[in-house]
Amino acid sequence: MNRLLVLARHGQSEWNLKNLFTGWKDPGLTQRGVEEAREAGRRLRAMGVQFDVAFTSVLSRAQRTCELILEEIGQPGLRTIRDQALNERDYGDLSGLNKDDARARWGEEQVHVWRRSYDVSPPGGESLKDTVARVLPYYVREILPRVMRGERVLVAAHGNSLRALVMVLDGLTPETIPSMELATGIPLVYSLNADTTVADKKVLEG
Hints:
206 residues; single chain; 6-stranded mixed sheet; 6 strands; Rossmann fold; alpha/beta; globular
């Protein structure tokens, strides 16, 4: 368990359920989302995982997921660092809109480009490239040094902020990262080598 990094996307949110663009808006978890977060904690507990520190965003769905995971592994109250750098991608003018309504307004092709391209941002929002540019410096400055010192680190965040980390860890490219999906509440367990590359990766699915 040396140089352990666990990434967990938050459980299902109320707006995930309603098929809305969420971004920096702050809906809570659904009951299913709560259970997904608890199940993530149970799977980590079954592996015998314990953490030294946790990181999360300033959005409540990620914070609640982090809390539930820590409760399930018997570490409630573990030091948790919250930072806006780990927030979800900002969808700008799309935030709060139903995805079908957005397609009706701007067209299927345009909405697909906004959602799945690497460097095209929606009106008033961030592209995935912008999100990577926000998340990666924080990872390199605040998270990675702890992992390399041997601390066991949990990051509970969002689909796109975590894709920025997976892009680096898994060696994905701007061409391949947009199609990579992260399921809600499924932990990714990484063990890193001394040169920060990945020694081992486990996806804790059912």
